[in-house]
Specification:
It is a single chain. With 415 residues, the protein is α/β, with parallel strands linked by helices. 33% of the residues lie in helices and 22% in strands. It has helices at 11-22, 39-52, 99-114, 141-146, 152-157, 166-176, 202-206, 244-258, 298-305, 308-314, 336-349, 364-367, 394-414; strands at 58-61, 67-71, 81-85, 123-127, 181-182, 191-197, 210-216, 218-227, 231-232, 267-269, 273-276, 282-283, 286-295, 320-329, 332-333, 353-358, 373-378. Helix 1 crosses helix 13 (394-414) and helix 8 (244-258) crosses helix 10. The protein is globular, with a radius of gyration of 23 Å. The mean pLDDT is 96. Bound molecules: zinc ion (ZN).
């Protein structure tokens, strides 16, 4: 398709930018370690703003540290058509999770700009702050705060392991980008599309290039605090022990037994398990652990999640247990119109596509509450993600960016 109304993106530049970004936090194993709003992540934001500057794109930051790179449209009254994702990574994460969604969006916007195409709506590339969550909880903080799902004050007060607050990191980001304007939380968007590596193997198995994401599974997360009593490991007989580790592992085993299904659709994970005080000769008096349960069916999710507390209480033995339901997110379906647009755009360019259900969490979840949203997946080598070996192919990344460019042009002139 060579149609001047739909210019081709610059795939070489797009790949080079992946390589440039991968230097910020490069690990010996070929991955990236760039936690949210560390100096390295702030450098990533600065690099984007340097790329934006020659085009005269405006950069702005909102109070939770989301970054917006904007190309103005011809009708200033219209909200932007946006695309983007996140620049932060997991500890020793990969080179594509998050950044691919940002760079494909930016490349699309830049292509449209260089082709001199005027759009009615403004276009935006968005970097949502703290999507991953290992440094600050909750994950998807920026998009959640933008969509009003989490209160700003509590999010700014969130502390990392060293007692540094998100608020102070957002200030550091603002200082690093002195020319950035300010943006209101929740300012309207007309549409949002997010490109992401699949983090699964469906596309690799089918050989298709584009996954048209149909919806996302829901999840419930819990924090469990088990309290027993610290005691001498040499002198305390079993009968007198209130061993929080024993109670917590009994809970974990019972939960694992209950939270599994024949079809292997349900996901149950204990991702954090902390034994305190942590002395080799001390019977531990406290254990804190987390539970993450995911399922595509809202009723199943509700019912299974409701069993967590009774199971923990039943298995507590001589210890006390407190179960806190941190968050419940229902499954969601993306609007049919957005899915059709992605499918049609892929078809016009000759990229094979398929519908695909999303089993991970992404910023598009929260933004879908504000405006019509959609997601595009591209193949992810062996489904490996949150890992230094994470890999996506340059031509698949280019295909996704091309679809974004074509869709931005249509969306920004039609609606
Ligand atoms: Zn991601």
């Amino acid at each position: 398709m060579s149609n001047p109304a739909y210019p081709g993106i610059n795939s070489k530049r797009l790949w080079q930018r992946h390589l440039d970004m991968a230097k910020l936090g490069a690990t010996a194993g070929g991955g990236v370690h760039r936690l949210a709003l560390t100096q390295l992540d702030i450098e990533a934001h600065k690099l984007l703003s340097e790329w934006a500057s020659p085009h005269g794109f405006n950069v702005s930051l909102d109070p939770i540290g989301n970054m917006f790179i904007r190309r103005e449209g011809s009708d200033p009254s219209l909200p932007p058509i946006a695309s983007g994702s996140h620049t932060d990574t997991q500890p020793n994460g990969g080179r594509f999770d998050g950044i691919t969604g940002v760079l494909t969006a930016f490349e699309a916007m830049e292509t449209i700009h260089e082709a001199g195409i005027e759009t009615r709506h403004p276009l935006e590339t968005i970097v949502w702050n703290n999507e991953e969550g290992p440094r600050f909880l909750p994950s998807c903080m920026g998009s959640a705060a933008y969509a009003g799902a989490e209160p700003l004050k509590a999010m700014l007060a969130s502390e990392d392991g060293d007692g540094i607050t998100m608020g102070s990191c957002v200030d550091a980001l603002k200082n690093a980008l002195p020319h950035a304007g300010s943006r209101e939380l929740g300012a309207p968007l007309s549409a949002f599309i997010e490109v992401h590596i699949e983090q699964g193997t469906e596309l690799e198995a089918s050989g298709n290039t584009i996954g048209v994401v149909t919806g996302m599974q829901g999840y419930r997360r819990f924090a469990v605090a088990v309290t027993g009593e610290d005691a001498h490991s040499g002198t305390t007989p079993r009968a007198r022990r209130k061993d929080a580790f024993v109670a917590a592992t009994d809970m974990a085993r019972a939960l694992r037994e209950k939270l599994k299904d024949e079809e292997d659709v349900l996901r149950f994970t204990i991702g954090r398990f902390e034994v305190l005080p942590g002395g080799i000769t001390v019977v531990p008096g406290r254990v804190n652990f987390t539970i993450d349960i995911r399922h595509p069916d809202a009723d199943v999710l509700l019912e299974l999640g409701d069993q967590v507390e009774p199971i923990c209480k039943r298995e507590a033995g001589p210890c006390e247990v407190a179960v806190n339901n941190l968050i419940t997110q229902d499954p969601l379906e993306f609007p049919a119109g957005m899915k059709q647009r992605i499918t049609a755009a892929a078809q016009r360019r000759g990229y094979s596509s398929q519908p695909i259900f999303c089993c991970a969490g992404h910023d598009a979840r929260h933004i879908s509450k504000l405006c019509p949203a959609g997601m595009i997946f591209i193949p992810c080598w062996k489904g490996i993600s949150h890992n230094e070996a994470e890999r996506a192919e340059p031509e698949d990344i280019a295909a996704a960016s091309q679809i974004i460019a074509d869709m931005l042009i249509d969306l920004a002139n039609e609606t």
